[in-house]
Amino acid sequence: RTFENVKIRRAPIFILGHWRSGTTHLHNLLCQDRRFGYVSALQVIAPDLFHVAGESFKALLRLGTPENRLIDNMPWSIDGPQEEEMALGNMSPYSLYHLWSFPKNAKQYFDRYAIFKDVSSEVIETWKENYVDVVKKATLNMQGRRLVIKNPANTGRIPILLEMFPNAKFIFLHRDPYQVFLSTRNLYKKTLPLSQLQEISDGEIDANILTFYKDMLGHYLNDRSLILPRNLIEIGYNELDEMPIRVMRRIYQSLNFWPFARARGRIRSYLNAQENYQKNSYEISTTDIENINRQWKFAFDEWNYPML
After folding, report:
1. Rg of the chain in Å (alpha carbons)
2. Tell me, what DSSP letter sits at residue 21?
3. Tell me: the pLDDT tens digits for 247-299?
4. Phi, psi torsion values for 57, nearest 5 degrees
5. Are 80 and 88 in contact (CB under 8 A)?
6. How many CB atoms neighbour CB 13 within 10 A?
7. Closest Cα to residue 15, out of 79, 110, 83?
8. Residue 152 CB partners (closer than 8 Å, separation 6+)
9. Other residues' Cβ atoms within 10 Å of the Cβ of residue 190
10. Which residues contact 93 (CB under 8 A, 6 or more apart)?
11. Which candidate, 16, 15, 13, 14, places its Cα nearest to that of 220?
């Protein structure tokens, strides 16, 4: 009853963008502002238990979790911000992230739960109920603070998110498509062995990456006009990486999160702590370039990235 009575007084701030586009980095930056809350890693691990979990439970979890993410060596904390999609996966069958266990069915999970293709109204309503449940519990856990939610899967869900939260704010991140492809492939290669219950070939992985990016960003480009201009800003990853304080100030100004000065010191401290972070580097093949150029040309055109 306590959770059911939670009032979401300020609609969430949704960070959108394909995986490996800098969404985690931006999530961490925004969550330095103590006016904002988030869905915690503890909540996504134990969505029906976290609110009564004591320090001994968290200590036990810390024994089995790394300090840094395996895919990119970014810091990871049991109390830090995490993707609510993982909570949905631990609560119900209606989550895109079941693809990590059943990668042969990845396209089916993507179509159903990332872009809601050929899904019944009953399933959509159940998904929405589960989603609101996650948001309410996080809101209570964060003492009513406005939530910053980062989930690439939400990039293709704008109409449904607006149905639930008409006044939500959206920040969309884009990145050089070649880097997105190579980094997403690395994500699959490092994550699947930890969870997969089916074998999948490298060719199938690449085909899924190419298709999911095209369909997800296609939905975003088609649906972004539904968002009021004052509630949406698009940011390039390179700009965020090279001029983070300037970009954060622009986000605060565009989405009316003022005053930025209240968060600037903590954001700068976080950036200073990450100054020795080393990004992964990759080599790209001629075949990769040809496939990306052919299937993702729309993204090069939309966000002015040079094609090889």
Report:
1. 19
2. S
3. 999 999 999 998 999 899 999 999 998 887 777 788 999 999 999 999 999 99
4. -65, -45
5. no
6. 23
7. 83
8. 16, 17, 18, 19, 21, 23, 83, 216
9. 13
10. none
11. 16
Give every CB contact of residue 256 below 8 A, 6+ residues apart in sequence.
230
Closest C-alpha among 29, 62, 9, 66 to residue 245: 29
**Helix, strand, or coil (residue 198):** coil
302 burial level (CB within 10 Å; 0-12, 13-18, 19+): middle
For residue 202, which of 103, 286, 293 has the smallest C-alpha distance? 103
pLDDT over 80 (residue 66): no
Q: Residue 129's closest CA among 168, 158, 94?
A: 94
CB 173, CB 22: distance < 8 Å: yes
For tokens 């939309």, name the residue: 302
Closest CA to 58 of 75, 76, 41, 33: 41
CB 68, CB 74: distance < 8 Å: yes
- Whether the CB-CB separation of 234 and 227 falls below 8 Å is answered with no
Specify burial of residue 279 (Cβ count, 10 A radius: 0-12, 13-18, 19+): exposed
Distance CA 201, CA 176 (A): 25
HEC-encoded secondary structure of 31-98 = CCCCCEECCEHHHHHCCCCHHHCCHHHHHHHHHCCCCECCCCCCECCCCCECCHHHHHHHHCCCCHHH
Rounded to an integer, what distance in angstroms lies between the CA atom of residue 174 and that of residue 242?
A: 14
Task: Give first-to-last CA distance, the chain, whole Å.
Answer: 57
pLDDT digits (tens, 9 = 90+) for 5-22: 899 999 999 999 999 999
Which among 102, 99, 101, 84 is positioned nearest to 47, based on CA atoms?
Answer: 84
Query: Which residues touch 173 (CB under 8 Å, ≥6 apart)?
Result: 15, 16, 17, 21, 22, 23, 26, 234, 235, 236, 237, 240
Mean pLDDT, residues 138-163:
97
